[in-house]
Design goal:
This protein is of the alpha/beta class. Helix content is 45%, strand content 13%. The protein is built from 14 helices and 13 strands. Helix 1 runs parallel beside helix 6 and helix 6 runs antiparallel to helix 7. It is globular and about 65 Å long. The protein starts with a strand and ends in a 14-residue tail after the last helix.
């Protein structure tokens, strides 16, 4: 039987990230028993101590065990905790040596959404891939530059360490873990029971790009403003360098440091975000939108759009604009 430890953290934890894993694995036990098989999971809520933790001022969760009483576990699940991440990590610092100790003993560790910050604070993610909520990517990169953040991913799996993308995508990681620990048949059964889309890999189509403005570099802010106000123009690094009277290499270095994007990446993300909003709200055809955001090469626009969002322009428009289901024949085979 697999021993599962779901952390009951301090702070503004997302209750669903505690309840969800508990329900998933206890329900899996029910599924197994219904077909005459033994239970596979011993599911426990584990706290720094036995004190109940209050969430959202309405709910309290009482741990089944304190970490000091858990000598060996097979899987640790770290829920999302919202707020200032440095304060979140400090409040839950007591978990970190225990997580490291258990991992050294063979336990696997999974973080849900921004629970990745607590996982990263253990050091176990250094030089490994990690996912988290797309809104937290800039803060995560700034705090943990040694971690390879893959912001578009729903799930990462590396050396017994797992992470999930944002919000409800943690359910996809739970299904993934259930399949790894049992079999495909049980995972499909759970997916149908909980009505979760199986094998979803990307959160790209949900990402809303908002340039990193939490910095003090005024020249970079001016560059960002110019890019965002001239989305239809074909802007180059040389153009910005000349406009701001800043050397090209200096601008590129400062821009990357301030925004976590290169200048070219930022220009591309701003243009694609503008295209996404047009697809969501207007009846313009795809070529009109493409030209409006400064692209003239249909193939290049399609490739960049799909790389950024995970969907083709037609797929994105049809997914998010219920009033515009007109099909553009020139993109019909994309």
């Amino acid at each position: 039987m697999k021993h599962i430890s779901i952390l009951v953290p301090r702070g503004a934890a997302a209750l669903a990230c505690i309840e969800g894993p508990f329900i998933m694995f206890t329900r899996a036990n029910d599924f197994l028993e219904s077909v005459g098989q033994p239970k596979m999971f011993d599911v426990n809520l584990v706290g720094l101590n036995m004190e109940p933790q209050a969430y959202d001022r309405l709910f309290s969760v009482t741990p089944d065990h304190a970490i000091k009483s858990i000598r060996k576990t097979d899987l640790i699940i770290i829920p999302a905790v919202n707020g200032d991440m440095r304060e979140v990590i400090e409040a839950n610092a007591g978990f970190l040596p225990w997580i490291n100790e258990q991992y050294a003993k063979g336990a696997e560790v999974a973080s849900l959404c921004v629970g990745a910050f607590i996982l990263a604070a253990t050091g176990l993610l250094n030089d490994k891939k990690c996912a988290t909520h797309w809104m937290a990517t800039n803060d995560f990169r700034r705090m943990f530059p040694e971690v390879h953040l893959v912001s578009e991913k729903i799930i990462t799996d590396e050396n017994g360490i797992y992470s999930s993308g944002g919000a409800n995508s943690f359910w996809n990681l739970l299904l993934y873990l259930l399949e790894k620990l049992t079999n495909r048949e049980l995972a499909i059964h759970a997916a149908k029971y909980f009505e979760i889309e199986l094998d979803r890999e990307s959160q790209s189509s949900f990402i809303m790009f908002k340039g990193q403005r939490d910095h003090q570099d005024e020249s970079v802010k001016q560059a960002q403003e110019f890019i965002e106000n001239n989305v239809e123009e074909k802007i180059t690094v040389d153009d910005l360098s000349f406009r701001l009277a800043v050397g090209k290499r200096t601008l590129e270095r400062r821009f990357k440091k301030a925004t976590c994007n290169t200048v070219s990446e930022y220009i591309q993300r701003v243009k694609i975000e503008a295209a996404k909003k047009s697809f969501e709200t207007s009846r313009k055809n795809i070529n009109e939108i493409m030209y409006a955001v400064g692209y003239s090469d249909t193939k290049a626009f399609r490739n960049i759009f799909k790389k950024t969002t995970g969907l083709s322009p037609v797929e994105y428009r049809n997914k998010y604009n219920k009033d515009s289901m007109l099909y553009d024949r020139s993109f019909s085979n994309q």
